[in-house]
Amino acid sequence: METQTATETKPFFIFYKPKDIVSGDFYFALAHKQENEDVEKFYMCTADCTGHGVPGALMSMLGISNLNESIIEKKLSKPNDILDSVRKGIIDSLNAEGSIVESKDGMDCVLCVYDFQNMMLEFAAANNPLWLLRNGEIIEFKPDKFPVGKYGEELKPFTLQKTDLKKGDIVYTFTDGFADQFGGPKGKKFKYKQLQELILSIHNLTMTQQKEKLNEVFEQWKGDLEQVDDVLLIGVKI
Q1: Is residue 203 part of a domain?
Q2: Helices (H), the chain
Q3: Do the Cβ atoms of 33 and 72 come closer than 8 Å?
Q4: I need a surface site. Which of 5, 124, 132, 141 has the fewest CB within 10 A?
């Protein structure tokens, strides 16, 4: 395998494979400096909304709208506060006053706030983990086990998680579409353990080559079977 070279200029990849023309998975990226902060930060969300196709796409639009409002208009900068705000916006939008049926649609996601100047990452995770690859090993950060949406009587606040960043780290965030794809010789799910093994086997490639390899493996695994869900996997190299 060809290793990372000095000619690689793209420090990220976005492997995005909707099941239909439009998708319930979405990614959100925004470079923004809050008035009360000294540095510009980079906000990135990897999200999986309820459903796919048109219903999923409508939920994606609702999620993106609430992310923009929370960060730009409400001036929130902590990822846990942002997800708390987005959750309230989604619930209020889907459960208008006088509604008879309560909607529990929402999204699973990882919201990262990168401070590249100070080499810090703050994030909040709803049902999906974050993987940090460092020195050839994957460090898994567990998510809160509830979605960005209505899920019970008492809504718990999202947890703020932090980690330092080191040169050469790669941060991977993803939805469940890749791991849940049926295929292979026995028609089984790909699963997260095999996804980790795949990432460990390709992490020395350039980010562009990693994306190409992920697509190749996904298509080989799926074979002639139907794609079961939207797929989204993002890698950011520090």
Answers
A1: yes
A2: 53-68, 79-94, 192-202, 207-222
A3: no
A4: 5
- The phi, psi pair for 129, rounded to 5°, reads -80, 175
User: Do the domain assignments include residue 7?
Assistant: no
In a domain, 24, yes or no: yes
Nearest CA among 22, 71, 19, 21 for reference residue 45: 71
Do residues 230 and 52 lie in contact, with contact meaning Cβ atoms separated by under 8 Å? yes
Judged on CB neighbours under 10 Å (0-12, 13-18, 19+), 233 is: buried
Boundaries of domain holding 104: 12-237
* Number of folded domains that form the chain: 1
Q: CA–CA separation, 105 vs 107, rounded Å? A: 7
User: Per DSSP, what are the bridge partners of residue 189?
Assistant: 182
* Residues 144-187: tens digit of each pLDDT: 999 999 887 789 999 999 999 999 999 999 999 999 999 999 99
Helix, strand, coil shares of the chain as percentages rounded to 5? 25, 30, 40
Query: Which residues are within 8 A (CB) of 144 and not within 5 positions of it... i.e. 6 or more apart?
Result: 124, 125, 126, 127, 156, 158, 159
Burial of 10 (0-12, 13-18, 19+ CB in 10 A): exposed
| CATH number of the domain that residue 108 is part of | 3.60.40.10
150 located within any domain: yes
233 contacts: CB under 8 Å, gap ≥ 6? 15, 46, 172, 173, 174, 175, 178, 214
Number of residues that make up the chain: 238
> 140-146: long-range contacts at Cβ-Cβ below 8 A with a sequence spacing of 24 or more?
143/108, 143/110
